[in-house]
TrEMBL record, chain A:
Residues 490-507, 597-609 have a biased composition (Low complexity). It is an enzyme of class 7 (translocase). Residues 710-762 form a coiled coil. Residues 582-591 have a biased composition (Polar residues). PROSITE patterns: 4FE4S_FER_1, 4FE4S_FER_2. The lineage of its organism: Bacteria, Pseudomonadati, Pseudomonadota, Gammaproteobacteria, Litorivivens. Residues 465-479, 524-552, 565-580, 610-645 have a biased composition (Basic and acidic residues). [4Fe-4S] cluster 2 binds at residues 380, 409, 412, 415. It comes from Litorivivens lipolytica. Part of a membrane-bound complex that couples electron transfer with translocation of ions across the membrane. This is Ion-translocating oxidoreductase complex subunit C.
TrEMBL record, chain B:
Its main location: membrane. HAMAP family: RsxB_RnfB. The lineage of its organism: Bacteria, Pseudomonadati, Pseudomonadota, Gammaproteobacteria, Litorivivens. Belongs to the 4Fe4S bacterial-type ferredoxin family. RnfB subfamily. The gene is rnfB. This is Ion-translocating oxidoreductase complex subunit B. The keyword rRNA-binding does not apply. One of its GO terms (biological process) is electron transport chain.
Length: 767, 203
């Protein structure tokens, strides 16, 4: 005889099991509507894989598991998906959750199944995959996905496989009837689990001694196998997983640990049958045995019910009398919860529907003060101190609660049952557990938010620093340009370094730093450097000339290249010479201070002084020459830009046009000057363009003043006509390109035309 | 020397006390230098208790500055997202009186939501978000990454078209929890009648 261990505490509530055992398992049939909640298990809700309006077959997967701890959902009869929406689900909160609703067609047409002839030939992973795909979740009440529970790590040795047929809660007989009628299926399922788990020592089926018929049937079915049916005295809550393990093996699951930690795997017998059907016949979990009982039911019994069947449909079969029922409970009287609505469906974990009368299960009397009798501590199967935890829960001392191992509480309700003051102790523990979990989640979330906040701060600081560095680099580059403008190599290097590239930027920065020091060179040094540059340029030019001559004599193929090189050398030499001259001039005229800006000013002043000596005509000639140079350069650039299709072409075109205008103006001035040679007001002219413009305007006024009023009117008319013409062409252009300036241009044109008409009238009147 | 000390126990006592004082003093001084704590450990502990929403409702730019202010002696009741739980935790830590919250009400945990068809893509909310929970680019629609949002509502104010809503987090089956029962035994026996409707009508 096997040694049976005992658990601490426990209570003996009235069993009330006989009522529902008068009949065998009856089929509940096909309801008109099936409601499949996406979350019938512990873990992530499944994801729908069917669409509204789609026809589904019996056993077809309609929602797939999402994540590791999750289980798929299958249609339990054939029909059409009528909607996927939020509906009330069987949950203590009475909240809504997503459900797939199927209108059944009554044909009960199976999808093609994939049965396994010989499961012993299957790999462990393959077998687990089948169990997972069948959507099997613990059917004893918790609903933990079975495949997850069965996938033990390879390094963990399981010596004992325990099948839980305890069913310790009052009223429920779903497992009992399963043992009586389907013992062979249970044993077949256990054998599959044995193959899957490979328990090294023993396989036990634990059953309380209040089910003699079930025990006899199981023993008969297990005959000749190594499966042992163990019977032990009835006590609530010996059906708890950890309690059953302790009763059968004497081993205690450590606090916060799993049964696998002590070499045990435990499964409910309902789950075992589901695994058997999934492996042997390929049938997913689409139905279960549910007990309908209570005094408000005239025909209590056990029903094989399709998952998703609305509770009110099932209750009708049990002869439910609404007016007598005080509250409808899903699950047992100890751990079940009250349903608010009878439209909710039967799910994978629904082992019982209890419809008690007022007399049978009166509402709990109001709680009274705790008298510290200690009966709760005596009843607790986990040897906790419920009374102590009650005070901590009321005072919200969560740390103390955790110290008192609140999380080992299995919420069996034995303490509340034992309490003479009717204090709903379990409620306190449930609420406190939830609050502690919430705080832990918030802690994790706040840590995460903090990390992100800090990362953002660092990023902003870095960006600021980079911006500052770029700004500084630009400043330095500008300074260097001003200072070392005469150093063509450096300038070229600086130009070549694009600011975007960090490495180049670093070089640029370094260069800028160096150039920052560069202005410190004395005038003598600079003079020497420039002289040297001239010398080297001269030497190079000489050698280039010599080479060119040689090549010309020999008619070498690289003649073209040599010619261009020679030209470049000539240019460079000229430039270097010019620089040297300029510097010499500057250093004689204004002793350099070493400051680049001051240098530049000094140079400009010198240039102005030189300009002042020149006659206006000379100046104008010079201007024309420089403008011509600029114009040709910009034309060249424009051509290049156009060729390469660059975006700058437009801008360049504009600037070229402007330059051309300026050149024309300058030429006109020159012509005027050379005509009159009169040093009139122009004598005071400076290089200031604004002043020049004013002067021009003054001259024009003077000239205009000399004109007769008729001439004046004529001239105004002409200019207006020209402006109108110009605006028209512009408008046409704008219209063509669809520019947004069209409206403005039209307005302008209209105004100008008005003016022109007025002017014409005036001219006509005067003329 | 020994003779002097044995002859005059008073001097001996003085001398030994002085030597002991010197020895321990130097030990303490050494420890103070050697084991000097960097930063402000109290501010760190306070910061660990704050909810890190970075909402600035306390008047400080973020949770860290408020934690530092509390360590300097500021009131502990200025954090609406933390609510009573945070105040109690802070009161425990600092051993001060737990004060009622200095705000109209505890802020409900919520998440920002951008009505995307109204968004003009100004990026103002992105700049305001303390935890980079808003994605989008200039002249493109923005959206909130709900899992990263702390519900601080700092993005609501800068939005020029008022297209951001603060939506309270819904209670789902996943985050629902049992309520703590209301202790009924605090009522006196005559008021504890479960058939309370009659009494209400009488009142």
């Amino acid at each position: 005889m096997r040694k049976i261990f005992d658990i601490h505490g426990g209570v003996h509530p009235p069993e009330n099991k006989v009522q529902s055992l008068s009949r065998g398992i009856e089929s509940a049939g096909i309801p008109p509507v099936l409601v499949h909640p996406l979350s019938q298990h512990i873990g992530a809700p499944a994801t729908p894989i069917v669409e509204v309006g789609q026809r589904v077959l019996k056993g077809q997967m309609i929602a797939d598991a999402k994540g590791f701890v999750s289980a798929p959902v299958h249609a339990s009869s054939s029909g059409t998906v009528s909607t996927i929406e939020h509906r009330e689900i069987p949950h203590p909160s009475g909240l809504l959750a997503r459900c797939i609703v199927i209108d059944t067609d009554g044909k009960d047409e199976w999808i093609e199944l994939d049965p396994v002839e010989d499961y012993t030939a299957l790999e462990k992973a393959d077998l687990l995959h089948r169990i997972r795909d069948a959507g099997i979740a613990g059917m004893g009440g918790a609903g933990f996905p079975s495949a997850v529970k069965l996938s033990t790590r390879d390094d963990v040795v399981i010596d004992t496989l325990i099948i839980n047929g305890t069913e310790c809660e009052p009223y429920i007989t779903a497992d009992d009837i399963l043992m009586r009628e389907r013992a062979d299926q249970i044993i077949a399922g256990v054998k599959i689990l044995q193959h899957l788990i490979q328990p090294t020592k023993q396989t036990l089926i634990g059953v309380e001694d209040n089910k003699p018929e079930g025990i006899a049937a199981l023993r008969a079915a297990a005959e000749g196998s190594n499966i042992e049916v163990v019977v032990f005295p009835t006590k609530y809550p010996s059906g708890g997983e950890k309690q059953l393990i302790q009763i059968l093996t004497g081993r205690e699951v450590p606090s916060g640990g799993l049964p696998a930690d002590i070499g045990v795997v435990c499964q409910n017998i309902g789950t075992t049958v589901a695994i058997h059907r999934a492996v042997q016949y390929g049938e997913p979990l689409i139905s279960r045995i549910t007990t309908v009982t209570g005094e408000a039911c005239s025909a209590p019994g056990n029903f094989e019910v399709l998952l998703g069947t609305p509770v009110d449909y099932l209750l009708k079969l049990g002869g439910f009398q609404q007016d007598q029922c005080i509250r409808l409970v899903m699950g047992g009287p100890m751990m079940g919860f009250t349903l608010r609505d009878t439209a909710v469906p039967v799910v994978k974990t629904t082992n019982c529907l209890l419809a008690p009368t007022q007399k049978e299960l009166p509402p709990p009397p109001p709680a009274q003060a705790c008298i510290r009798c200690g009966m709760c501590a005596e009843a607790c199967p986990v040897s906790l101190l419920p009374q102590q935890m009650y005070w901590f829960a009321r005072g919200k001392e969560y740390e103390k609660l955790e110290e008192h191992n609140l999380f080992d509480c299995i919420e069996c309700g034995a303490c509340s049952y034992a309490c003479p003051s009717n204090i709903p102790l379990v409620q306190y523990y449930r609420a406190s557990k939830a609050e502690i979990r919430k705080q832990q989640q918030e802690k994790v979330k706040s840590e995460h938010a903090k990390a992100r906040f800090e990362a953002r701060q660092i990023r902003i600081e870095r960006e600021e620093a980079e911006k500052e560095a770029r700004r500084k680099a630009r400043q330095e580059a500008a300074k260097k340009k001003a200072a070392a403008g005469k150093d063509p190599i450096k300038a070229a290097q600086a130009k070549a370094a694009p600011a975007a590239d960090p490495a180049q930027a670093a070089i640029e920065k370094a260069m800028a730093k160096r150039s920052g020091n560069a202005p410190e060179e004395t005038n003598e040094e600079k003079l020497a450097r420039l002289k040297k540059a001239v010398e080297t340029a001269e030497k190079r030019l000489e050698s280039a000339t010599a080479k060119l001559k040689e090549a010309e004599a020999a008619d070498a193929p690289n003649l073209g290249a040599l010619q261009t090189a020679h030209e470049r050398m000539t240019e460079k030499f000229a430039k270097a010479k010019e620089e040297l001259q300029q510097f010499e001039q500057a250093s004689t005229e204004a002793p350099s201070t070493g400051d680049p800006a001051a240098d530049a000013i000094a140079r400009a002043q010198a240039a102005r002084a030189k300009n002042a000596d020149k006659s206006p005509r000379e100046k104008a000639e010079e201007q024309v020459a420089s403008l011509e140079k600029r114009l040709s350069k910009s034309e060249q650039k424009l051509a290049e830009a156009k060729e390469s299709g660059s975006e700058t072409a437009e801008v360049l075109e504009q600037s070229t046009a402007k330059l051309r205008d300026k050149l024309d103006a300058a030429r006109a001035e020159l012509a005027q000057l050379s005509e009159s040679e009169a040093p009139v007001a122009a004598a005071a002219s400076t290089n200031d363009p604004a002043q020049l413009a004013i002067e021009k305007a003054m001259a024009a006024r003077e000239a205009a003043a000399k004109l007769s009023p008729e001439d004046k009117a004529k001239k105004a008319l002409e200019s207006l006509e020209a402006r109108v013409e110009k605006t028209r062409t512009k408008l046409a252009e704008a219209e063509e390109s669809g520019a947004d300036t069209v409206d403005v241009l039209r307005d302008t044109l209209a105004k100008l035309e008005d003016k022109l008409a007025e002017a014409r009238k005036e001219a006509g009147v005067e003329g | 020397m020994i003779e002097l000390l044995t002859q005059h126990p008073f001097i001996a006592a003085l001398a030994s006390l002085a030597i002991l004082g010197l020895a321990f003093g130097s030990l303490l001084g050494f420890a103070a230098v050697k084991f000097k704590t960097e930063g402000d450990p109290i501010a760190d502990q306070v910061e660990a208790l704050l909810p890190q929403t970075q909402c600035g409702q306390c008047g400080y730019p973020g949770c860290r500055p408020y934690a530092e202010a509390i360590a300097e002696g500021d009131a502990i009741n200025k954090c609406p997202p933390g609510g009573e739980a945070t105040i109690n935790a802070l009161a425990d830590l600092l051993d001060v009186e737990a004060l009622p919250l200095d705000a109209e009400e505890e802020s409900v945990p919520s998440v920002a939501f951008i009505r995307e068809d109204e968004c003009i893509g100004c990026t103002k909310c992105i700049q305001a978000c303390p935890v980079d929970a808003i994605v989008g680019a200039a002249k493109h629609m923005h959206t909130v990454v709900a899992s990263e949002c702390t519900g601080c509502d700092l993005c609501v104010e800068p939005c020029p078209v008022d297209c951001i809503d603060m939506i309270p987090l819904p209670t789902t089956v996943q985050n629902w929890s049992w309520e703590l029962p209301k202790p009924a035994e605090d009522l006196i026996a005559t008021d504890r009648d479960s058939n309370s409707s009659n009494r209400d009508e009488a009142a």
